[in-house]
Design a protein that fits this description.
This protein has about 220 residues and is mainly α. The chain has one domain. It has eleven helices and no strands. Helix 3 packs antiparallel against helix 4, helix 7 packs parallel to helix 10 and helix 8 packs antiparallel against helix 10. The relative contact order is 0.11. GO terms for molecular function: glucoside transmembrane transporter activity; sugar transmembrane transporter activity. Interacts with TRPV2; the interaction probably occurs intracellularly and depends on TRPV2 N-glycosylation. Keywords: Cell membrane, Golgi apparatus, Membrane, Repeat, Sugar transport, Transmembrane, Transmembrane helix, Transport. Mediates sugar transport across membranes.
Length: about 220
């Protein structure tokens, strides 16, 4: 086996392992919803946006014929769809969530129609779809910055997930290296913010330890 092939296989395996690990962190929310039969403290929008992101990258993977992208995002889309369905099942007010879902799916379908019908050239399709996926992923990574500012304001990391932070860091790093290896900027660039925001979270965990927050709340009670 060629050295380059070994590196590619290791990077591909790392991308699959770490990304599916990141997606599986939602299983704790799934368990919480099933046990409590409620959606208290569980957010719906991250499930929905991640599902749309998975479906977009799945299309990019199919167009690029990249098995790693196809496997990761196909499994990710199934998991996120499962989370969405369970959330809708236990949520008492479904109308607003259904409207959000319909709106994002409508945008996704319009995008599919544009890429597959209005852009017949495969190379142009690949570049435009890659650009869309990159912008969408970057916006997802930067969207929680308001929450990070709130962590600094409250000096509490109770709302952050340490396991998700580690999984996101490993996943983003592996995809960045994978994109660099393939010389694919659409894969490499959007994962750099994931590394950046994960490092900020780790710094916040070190500055405001959760155990310290827990003890503080106990003292207050």
């Amino acid at each position: 086996m060629q050295p380059g092939t070994v590196v590619d296989s290791l990077l591909s395996g790392a991308c699959v392992l770490f990304t599916l690990g990141m997606f599986s962190t939602g299983l704790s929310d799934l368990r919480h919803m099933r046990v409590t039969r409620s959606v208290d403290s569980v957010q719906f929008l991250p499930f929905l946006t991640t599902d749309v992101n998975n479906l977009s990258w799945l299309s990019y993977g199919v167009l690029k014929q990249d098995g790693t992208l196809i496997i990761v995002n196909a499994v990710g889309a199934v998991l996120q769809t499962l989370y969405i369905l369970v959330y809708l099942h236990y949520c008492p007010r479904k109308q607003a969530l259904l409207l959000q879902t319909a709106a994002l799916l409508g945008v996704l379908l319009m995008g599919y129609g544009y890429f597959w019908l209005m852009v017949p050239d495969p190379d142009t399709q690949l570049h435009q779809l890659g650009l869309f996926c990159s912008v969408f992923t970057i916006s997802m990574y930067f969207s929680p910055l308001a929450d990070l500012a709130n962590v600094i304001k409250t000096q509490s990391t109770q709302r952050l997930s340490y396991s998700l932070t580690i999984a996101t860091l490993l996943s983003s790093a592996s995809w960045t290296l994978y994109g660099f290896r393939l010389r694919d900027l659409y894969i490499m660039v959007p994962n750099l913010p994931g590394i950046f925001t994960s490092l900020i979270r780790l710094w916040l965990f070190r500055k405001y330890p959760q155990e310290k927050d827990k003890n503080y709340r106990l003292l207050q009670t």
